[in-house]
Every structure is written in structure tokens, then in C-alpha cells.
Model the fold of this input.
Amino acid sequence: MILVTAVLAAAASVMFLYLAGYRFYVVRSGSMEPFIHTGSLEIVDCRSGLSGIETGDVVCFDTPGGMTVIHRVVSVTEKGLETQGDANDVSDGITVVPENYIGEAVFQIPYAGYAAAFAASKKGRIAIITVIAVLLIITLVPVRDGKKDSAVCRVVSPEPDDT
Done:
């Protein structure tokens, strides 16, 4: 029962963050090592605008090629934000502007992205559905202890009438 409660609390927390304007991204490369590890789950505040971003902040944006990138701001210019991965020697060469800006990276859970990526896969969804079904069955179906009288429901036949 505690496990079911924990799973429900985690799901409610994720839903609350999502409704509050936060999005979750899996870090798939080492371009931000050692600050952000490959496989981390990055939480991005999509409500933040470009105006509050400063040099040193970590932002999330889309590239013209359709990739989503999480990198550090190395300069703020009149045109937008210039970014670079911590492990990279050169800047991205992409100016982050309101059209491709997603939000500011505000929190990370190291290595949790591996679990999130698995959960998003077909095998992961099947595993989650299976676990939920098993937890529901364990929670809802009473356990018999082997005694004859321990059944949840017993059929009781009426006593024969001697009259």
C-alpha cells in the first residue's frame, strides 16, 4: 500500500509541475559534463522569458535542425543569447531568440533520464502498465492465510428445518 501511495504521489507531483509550466527533458549527450550528466532528467521552467536570463544561466532551446538543446549562456547580445556546452570548445553558433527559446533549466535529477526514456518507450509503457496492474491486484485482492475460515466470503446454507 505504501508503494502505491508513493507512485501516486510521484505522479501527482509530475502533473503539478507540468500544469505549473515546467517541462522535463532527458539529457542525451555529454556536452554539459560535468555540470549536467548524460542521462539526467532536466526540469525546465517554460514560463521564464529571455529578459531575465543572464550569462551563466542554463537554457533550453530548439535548433534549426529540430533538436532540443540545453546549454549555458556565454553572452547576452541585442540579437539574443549565445550558448555553449560546458564540455565544448566553441559556442553553438546559434542565437537563441524568443522563437526558439523554450525556458530556463532550473533543476536536474542525475541519471533519472534513463528511467524516463525507458518509460517513454513501448517496452517501458508495457512495464508500467504491468506494474500498475500488479499493484492494483495486490492492493485490492485479499490474501488468504491458508485457513479454511479465512475466506472473504463464505456461502452459508440455511439450517434444515426439523419441523
Q: What stands out?
A: The first strand starts at residue 22 and ends at 26. The two ends are 51 Å apart (CA to CA). Residues 22-134 form a domain with the Umud Fragment, subunit A fold (CATH 2.10.109.10). The beta strands are 22-26, 41-45, 58-62, 68-76, 81-84, 95-96, 101-109.
